Amino acid sequence: MTEEKLSRLKLYTLLLVEDDEELLNKLNIILSIFFKEVITMPDGKDALDVYKTQKIDMIISDYSMPHMSGYELFKEIRKENKKIPLVIMSNYSDSEKLLNSIPLSLAHYLVKPVDYTTLTSTLVSMVERLEESEVLTYKISDELSYDTSKKELHDSEKVVPLSKSEIITLELLLQNKDKIVSNNEIELNLDPTENKSEQAIKSLIYRLRKKVGKDKILNISGFGFMLKL
Asked: Which residue numbers delimit the Response regulatory domain (predicted)?
């Protein structure tokens, strides 16, 4: 169950905020294993600018930083976003800061130094927070939605059956929505050990288009495919 929940993070972008460069780099290496993308920032002020201009799904931030603390950063974010999972990091002796952070509705609280087991359990808590707020559901159209936790495509009240290859490809397109995904990327995600012909990829996309709509998956001639939501 834990591995299954952690695998869902590949659909999401994490903003990691920490002014200690060594710790920032260490955490970035580990967290990049789990997330689609990890964006790193050295202080809260720059992190807030990134949050306002980019699609950020989760945030882990140090509490004490120059220019803007993690607490101040999260306070600003909570003014307009009650659902995004937030995690604050602080030293063992900073129990008062933890109490201050309770009103921020954190997904978790990390005590430094952060060990791998605690970090992964924190990531699971973040996924569960997404599940609670139904953020793990992608709205494809007025009638269609895809539930990443159950790996199900829903058409109003019924479930549209998807093959394993269709699930992998749809999730890859969702991870890169509004971006071109090449035939080679699709092939590698399906099975890096098996070569698939261009026609086999086209047939797979054809079947998927019949289920999500031809206008949703665009064929970018000579480059690949793009999902438009």
From this structure: 13-127
